[in-house]
TrEMBL record:
Keywords: Coiled coil, Metal-binding, Zinc, Zinc-finger
Similarity section: Belongs to the KIN17 family.
SMART domains in the cross-refs: Kin17_mid
Protein name: DNA/RNA-binding protein Kin17 WH-like domain-containing protein
Gene Ontology CC annotations of this record: nucleus
UniProt keyword Signal, yes or no: no
Amino acid sequence: MGKNDFLTPKAIANRIKAKGLQKLRWYCQMCQKQCRDENGFKCHCMSESHQRQMQIFGENSDRIVSGYSEEFEQNFLDLMKRSHRFSRVAATVVYNEFINDRHHVHMNSTQWATLTEFVKHLGRTGKCKVDQTEKGWFITYIDRDSETLFKEKMKNKRLKLDMVEEEKQEREIQKQIQMAEQLKAPLESDQENEQKAVPKELNLESGVKIGFSLGGGIIRKEEKGESSSKAARIVNGAYRGSNARLLGVDTEKFCAKVQIEKGVYDGRLIKAIEYEDICKVA
Ligand SMILES: [Zn+2]
């Protein structure tokens, strides 16, 4: 009997006949047939259609049982969600509501032999919170949808907070950078000017060349001039024969201050040497 046959006259008639909850054990899950009593069930089991169904079951028992188990669990959880979403409730109460629907998947066709076994399964797989009391097992539906929504909300909130925090830090850093820049401002503007000035010169290639050659020329000229005017030779005493540079003269004492250049005494400073002991070198 297919699921879509429930509107046929026969199906309707059967439902009318089967009004009220009948003994669950006279239900054949394989054929989805409710028998009214033991005799009816025996007759059904002898029927060709049932035998055919049982043959199919024998060949695919695992798949069929797991299929019924899945359906049983899903329907049971749907009922929990519908009727006991936010409350802790006795497992037997829910089960009685569940089997009140005559077309429910019967437990004897699932992998669970007893309600207790099924309840433990719900607890183990995290689909319900379960706890055992003197009055039996109690179950509380775990609302995955709400939980997911809640987690999502919290995650977004956290992300938002993180972003706010980051922005705050960013602003703080910017503030510190600005303060540091203000402190450095005079120094930096000098540097900037220098930096600006240098590239300007460098950019004017011809100007740079001129500047360099002129500068070099001037320095060399100066050095030459200096050496020509201040170069001296020591002609008497211990440093006789040494070349020296005239650093200054003491006209009152008729002395000169010289620094020896080259030779073994190179660099030696003589603070006072008499005029007669040196002579200028052209
Ligand atoms: Zn059957």
